[in-house]
Amino acid sequence: MCGIVGIVGTTPVNQAIYDGLTVLQHRGQDAAGIITIDNNTFSLRKDNGLVKDVFHTRHMKRLQGTMGIGHVRYPTAGSSSSAEAQPFYVNSPFGIALAHNGNLTNAAKLKDELYNVAKRHVNTTSDSEVLLNILAHELAKPNKLNLEPDDIFTAITTVNSKVVGGYASIAMIIGHGMLAFRDPNGIRPLVFGKRETERGMEYMFASESVALDADGFEFVRDVAPGEAIFVSDDGELFSKQCSDQAAYSPCIFEFVYFARPDSTIDKMSVYATRVNMGTKLGEKVKKQWADKEIDVVIPIPETSCDIALEMASVLELPYRQGFVKNRYIGRTFIMPGQEMRKKSVRRKLNAIAQEFKGKNVLLVDDSIVRGTTSAQIVEMAREAGAKNVYFASAAPEIRFPNVYGIDMPSATELIAHGREVEDINQSIGADGLIYQSLDDLIAAVSKENPAITQFETSVFDGHYVTGDINQDYLNQIDELRNDTAKNDRENAMSSGLELHNQDAAE
Length: 506
What we know:
The chain is α+β, with helices and mostly antiparallel strands.
């Protein structure tokens, strides 16, 4: 999962891109990058780390220009190498830079095609570099010095026909302008906005509308599935539908977990969808757990707070903040290594004992992935004096890996994979466990935009909307994402860094 920002301005855009990335930091804490164009030249800064740590004053001074794109990253296939930080750049044709959120499920096939047909070398294991080279190859086909908007849209049409997976992308073409495009299923989000200045109209693209808000841009609309929008160097805007197979299937996990509550995606308020989830889950608890004497509803901060508050209202029970969160700890389900996740939970949350002592508590979380966090939170509640600990998940059982840009664990590391609810309940040590049903989750989200009738729900039901996922592919994902493989990569990177430092010292 990643966050992307692109701005075509009338004044320097470096600070606005930085600010946009800062409010999208929740979408990626592994690496960050910004590239700008000034005097027909790219200036690039990218590295591992948070936005505030990657960009210093000396970097911002160098990132001049009125057009630029930015990126924050979680690695989708387990690699944390700074060489795979985005944006990526190629020098032909013209010079193209690209930032990408998502994952291409046919990246290996495309990489072979690039080498054997286009004679293009891909230097990393990142599918984003594959996407950039596919785009570059198509943009070279008109063999013209000056591309027209229709030439660019023809290239995107071909890209959409070749590339499979989830992708929201922003690219810059030297001497031409900025291009934003979204996969034909609309799996990953992408919005655009505008603001009028004394020098003319400025345009901005971003993963979430909250980035537009932070930079003072007016939300215009979502980029449609399969659509491409091109803004020329002189500020003219063009758009075109570039796929005859386009249809909405947005990732429902954006609403469950990833997106900020103050964002709007595909005309759906993330906050409102989470309130709706609370209503649905509260009604299910009231119906199925009428025999349980629950005293208080306590959320696992922060994503579940709005959900739990609505549940407390439906159940006519007190709502209490029983855990205090350390906001300087990253999201735990994506952290490599089970031991690191275990340590992070205790550093991330601390219980307020008086909210638990002698009470039957209903803990509410947005989802349960590995179960590591849930088990420790149940244990913390018991240590704080809870009489009984019940657990509610606002999302259904996560039984399958995500292949469209979320670095979830391998299937064998998902606590719900091959297990029934009672088995999961025993694993996390709760006195009762209840999940939101998939139908109720879909109803909760689609209530905000009834025009969208289908969502990407593969992590819950194993149905992959692109239709190309088989067991062989899932096995490959498992080999990349399991904890053993991640630890091996981390150790290899550490050894390489130590050797580099030794060589430098000598």
